Automatic annotation (TrEMBL):
Species this chain originates from: Elysia chlorotica
Record-listed E.C. numbers: 2.7.1.28, 2.7.1.29, 4.6.1.15
A GO term from the CC aspect: cytosol
Gene3D superfamilies linked to this entry: 1.25.40.340, Dihydroxyacetone kinase, domain 1 (3.40.50.10440), Dihydroxyacetone kinase, domain 2 (3.30.1180.20)
Lineage: Eukaryota, Metazoa, Spiralia, Lophotrochozoa, Mollusca
Quaternary structure and interacting proteins, as annotated: Homodimer. Interacts with IFIH1 (via the CARD domains), the interaction is inhibited by viral infection.
Name this protein carries in UniProt: Triokinase/FMN cyclase
Reactions mediated catalytically: FAD = riboflavin cyclic-4',5'-phosphate + AMP + H(+); D-glyceraldehyde + ATP = D-glyceraldehyde 3-phosphate + ADP + H(+); dihydroxyacetone + ATP = dihydroxyacetone phosphate + ADP + H(+)
Record keywords, A-Z: ATP-binding, Cobalt, Kinase, Nucleotide-binding, Transferase
GO biological process assignments: glycerol catabolic process
InterPro entries the record matches: DhaK_dom, DhaL_dom, DhaL_dom_sf, Dihydroxyacetone_Kinase
Amino acid sequence: MSSNKTKKLINNVHECERQSNEGMVAVNPGMSLVDGYTVVVRTDAPQYLSENKVIVISGGGSGHEPGHAGFVAKGMLTAAACGSVFASPPPLCIMAAINAVCQQKTGCDIIMVVTNYTGDRLNFGIACERARVKGHNVEMVVVGEDCALDSVDHSAGRRGLAGTIFIHKIAGAMAEMGKSFSDMVAYLNTVKSKMGTIGLCLSPCSVPGSAPTFTLGNDEMELGLGIHGEAGIKRIKVQTAKEAVKTMMDHMTNKQSSTHIDIESGDRVALMINNLGGTSVLELNLVAKEAISYLESKGVSIDRAYCGSFLTSLEMAGVSISVLHVDDTVLEYLDLPTASPVWRPPYMAPGQKFRKTPGLVTVPTEDKIVFDETAAKLDSGTAGLVFKALQSACEKLLAMEEELNDLDKQSGDSDTGSTLGAGAKAILEKLGPASAPTLPVDCPHTLALTLGQITETKMGGSSGALYSLFFTGAAQELKTTTKESLSAALSSGLQAIMKYGGAKPGYRTMVDPLHAAVQSMTDAKNSSLSVIESLKKAAEAATKAAAATKDMDAQAGRASYVNKSLLDKPDPGALAVASWMTAAVNTL
């Protein structure tokens, strides 16, 4: 493959269309592929034919998947004829779709839903005439709802875009309900005039085996392009989702344009947000939110909203927005169940008839600390020491931010220092002045719970969760203030980290210095050492354990995915624990 061609997961450029459909029918055996043609037909077509219902056939170039073949199912299309990528299917292919449904029967009622492109009109038109010669009753419903063009003079007219899928759905529902051929033709031709679509892209698409169809700068987006990568009406600078949706909708509803759609306050519409192929679901939902907000701000009732991939342009990054005026009858057709694997109706609450943007659900906040009123309190002198120890520990973490970030480059994304620094900064802000602390330094139990909440909300990520577990786990043991309770608190905090984090001593994590400190405190329980002397021994043990992590194999966290030869320095999380512990003890 030459360097100017884009990469694609295909086997053969000339067979990718049929092989794609082979995969689709393999996954969805309610569809069948016609031998010798790129035609998808309902597997139950013979049964459908015996019910004398109107046959609905559509199709067009491949590359727009899931359109159109993905909508072959009960309640939607009876068959779809697929051409080469971005090329109309030839008449023989379309006739194969007709014959696959009608078999030897004559006099079938057939509606062909065709997008308004010259090739599609010509090829489906030829097939229509041939089908009539064979005795079938056939009509074409040509869909062209593009609102991008300022004028249709001297052109092929408005292009058929994703709004065509609305017509597929309505036509399929009417056929399934047994509506007459003449009623369907008249109704579909009326409905198709009540919708509009406009597209916007951030990057081009490329036909398999070829270079991209056009180029866009990193700061550019194309407004009003077609689904084959045809140029839009103008190229604009990249905008936010909110701004882009406004640009699209303002153009679509601009009364100065001959192709606009009239949308007034009080109108009822169905909205379709369509992925042009390469847009993430995150972005798609953002666009849906902004489009709904735009219309609701105009007083428009959005009775139904659909968001997903309906009619794509290969891997083009972009979206199209379609708006269809609706009433109760249209909604009945849109809501009629279909077996199509790609038509996804919006999830509505039980009994809900019309879509309405839901309000926010309010819940009790979790920011209130629940603690034991009977927990032991410290005298003012000891509380002052706790204040200084906590202050020193946080200041040490802030001073080490750059050093810890550098260490984290070995195995992470260089943010350990920044993450711990954010927590330390938040604690210092909450701590207040030594003369009037605003954290409960006189109650270790409440202080530990408070520190757990601060680290959880201000640090974020794994570090925030681990420190929150540590402080919350330790809090229960701090209802009393003895050398034994302090040792038990460290042990409980460590056990919480190990239980939920999965790390164990020797895994090259913050567990290693904490475990060493706990072991030291446990050994000192029956000794004559004072609390401060025990803490000093624990900090020394933690420091040695942190230094030893440089020779350990990482078995937890991001470091476990890194080549061992690259890990020749202490683990940053372990070093942080030893450092703040030492800073706190030195203050005492």
